[in-house]
AstE family protein
Amino acid sequence: MGGETPTDESSQEEAATASAGSSATNESSDASSEAAAIDGTATAEPFTYDDGSVAPGESANIRYGISETYLGDPIRIPVTIINGERPGPTVFLSAAAHGDELNGIEVVREVAHDWNHSELHGTLVCLPVMNVPGFLAQERYLPIYDRDLNRSFPGRQGSTSARRMAHRIFTNFIEPCDLGVDFHTSTRGRTNMLHVRANMDDETVRRLAHAFSSNVIIGGEGPSGTLRREATEAGVPTITVEMGEAHRFQRRLIDRALTGVASVLAEFGCHRDSSVHWPGWRVVIDSDDEKTWLRADAGGIVDMKHGRGALVEEGDVICTITNPFKEEDDILDVEAPFTGLIVGVLENPVVYPGNPLCHLVGLKHETRLALEREGGTERSRSELR
Ligand SMILES: [Zn+2]
């Protein structure tokens, strides 16, 4: 199902990304002069979609039809629109474009239903479950010919079932927005450290990525058809947040993501009583040689020595691959080719040759110093998980 693709976006993205170098930044969020560019309208306006509208000061829970089942029944996605009394940007928060990636669902639900938005400037468009057929089946893809909804944006009328669904979502709930955050997890059987994927060449995307306050940002525009790339190209700067594993709620990651959302809403003036959060250290990865998926050179059973978020030194044994007899001669040590952070890692401990073992991201010396200063080494072994 997930095939050889280590995370949602990685293989194509790694092939496609070849710009700039990594940079370690210590400054807190850079923007403020740019705020005017994405203020939204001067007066609060209704949020309209093709079946209705939500007036300023009102909220609505909508079940919105995007397709039909074999029985002819509607396939409807849950959407919550919260329109503030005061003018400001329109921000979408979306999750479960891959139906088994659950962490983001809880992030979006808590923002929509547990937070107080009485002082909200602007509008929140909350899409906790976009791929409803995949969610019902607890599968990554749309169970209709295994289509990937997150390669089908912006969608098209009169096209495949996936593109029609994507089109309904995109035109009604993405295009009207000023910016967005799309939540994912690693593919089944693997796990990710919480990190942001963002096209750092786009000024507003960069500002959004910084504001989300994750320690790691992986640059690149993303594969064609992904929500973040297509939304960004359509004028709605969007980032992807990758966090943890499929098929579960991971409370610590959900809380960190909620901090990120609060920070974004502060940065763009939606929640003016909260403040932008600085993660303590940050590494921005933009070139191929600073990140790599280490792949197994032998089939076997994997004994992973380090978890998600761990800092490993060049030459450290990351894992061993053994046969069922644990024969000494057949134990293969997999060493770190450079010092870096383990951003993504195998959870299901079995591999064929060529299967991914871990996603290692290199750290520049100064980033590493900042990480150690902030206690990040410790944190990377515990809190960051
Ligand atoms: Zn995903």
Q: What stands out?
A: Confidence is low (pLDDT under 50) at residues 1-6, 10-37, 377-385. The CA atoms of residues 148 and 227 lie 11 Å apart. The chain is about 25% helix and 30% strand.
